[in-house]
Prior knowledge:
It is a multi-pass membrane protein. Pfam families: Sugar_tr. This protein is mainly alpha-helical. 71% of the residues lie in helices and 2% in strands. The chain has helices spanning 2-12, 17-26, 29-38, 44-59, 65-77, 79-97, 99-118, 120-123, 127-152, 160-181, 193-198, 200-210, 218-224, 228-239, 245-259, 276-288, 294-298, 301-307, 312-339, 342-365, 373-390, 392-403, 409-438, 442-460, 469-473, 479-482, 512-518; strands at 507-510, 523-528. It has a two-stranded antiparallel sheet with strand order 1-2. α7 (99-118) packs antiparallel against α9. The longest helix has 30 residues, at 409-438. The chain is globular and about 70 Å long. The termini are far apart.
Amino acid sequence: MPDNHLEDKTQKGGWTLRMVAITCVAYLIIPAMSYAIACLNAPSQLIKIFMNETEQERTGEPFTESQVESMYGLLVAVIGIGAGFASLTADSIADLIGRKYALIMSAVIGIVGTLLMALCTVGKSYEMLFVGRAVNGLALGWGLSLAPPYIMEMCRSHQKGAAAMANIVSQSSAFFIAQVFGYEELLGNTDYWPYLIGFPIILLGLQLILLPFCPQNPRYLLVKKNDEAGAIKALRIIRGSEDVNEDLKEIRQEMAESTTESQISFFKLFVTPSMRRPLIIAIAMGLQQNWCGMNGILFFSDTLFKEVGVTGRSSRYATSGTGGVFLLGCIGATYLVTKFGRKTLFVIGTAAIGIFCAVFSLTCVFQNDASFLKYVNIVVALLIMVSYALGPVSVFWVILGELFPHSARGAGFGVAILCAFIGFFAHCYALPAMNETMSAYTFFVFAGIDAAMVVFCIFLMPETRNRSFSEMIQGWAVPELSEVQSPPSISVATISSNTQIEPGTSVVAFDHHELSKTGERNINNDVVM
């Protein structure tokens, strides 16, 4: 009797120990690749010196300062190319081999890319840095596109919010760890910076060892492979219970819905009228993620702080402080995003970032007139990070699943993530040149972008919290869907083969499949008299 009570509690309740373990293992690729994004910040000068010395050994001439800055900007940005490509192919790979084995493949790719970068000094080749970082982009894009759905499709509805926020917290944790490991006293020095870059191998290797022991996604087994026995076995492992009937019922219900709902592909998304508004919102949010000013602080903070007069240990501590505040902000966002409207949080967070970016530029301009302003810069940089964590980044990962219906969710995620990495590449490659030409005024550009995004959101972004897609679309003025009206005198009834029909009664036969597929009333020409 106690065992049955425990199983019933587990079935109805929250996270089993196995589910927590599976989540941690599946998400290992996310902090590993997020660390890979941020770890180049601390040893930036050492990497530039390595590039220069390598070129001088080869040709007898070092790079010019502008060439080195441009190459470093490209190195930071090139990860976005691989990630963008991976985000477009993730769904196809997942359908082919399942998300579990796709994640294993991603871990292998990540190890290869990280090894190429870490061994660049041994090979005396700065090209290895570029190739390795592009390869890491593939692992990053696949990891972000595969790991969250792998876990969320195992979760019950009340667990999905926590699973989504765990993704964001793991990313922010990795950024902070990368900054701490980048201290000169630890790995951010001439002798150990290749080890700093190579650290993700530990996390990826751990995932490669443990992930084969995790179950395949039950939904994939039942929907794609028609393997009910395998799905039941996987569900029992995840739930820690023999009774998984409710979970099977939910998956079968999704299967029934998918048979009457036309799947919207990546390219079809752009020509479907009802998807126009959410698509524009997803593209704008994806591009804005990296042009709001946050990346200017996070990835170039060491250089920025030195340029505004914060040097030595103060610079390193300020840099790691941005990562620490970002982490705390993301943890706080796990509460706020479930309590307040998505639109409200996004608008407030973006507006705050814009204001702080303008203040950051002003303090940089006048720092020579007042020495205390360099410390104001540090505080403002921290405020930019916490505003970003509490608003734009948290809402971005949550709202994407609410903007699109089930039939377009995969394509919608792909477009948004692709735009985010396009913005990442453009931003990281352009920022060094912007800093060189515009200096302190660079952050005014970010402030202007944030102001435009606030206006965009106020007028175009819907509030998605506790609202279905059909409820949102009613206010979007889509003629194909919102203006369809039933004929006023038609009654709808279910007619069986034994139903007696009165003479002179008109019966209109609806094609249920086409009705569900297109959202419109497709009327057959069959009229029974």
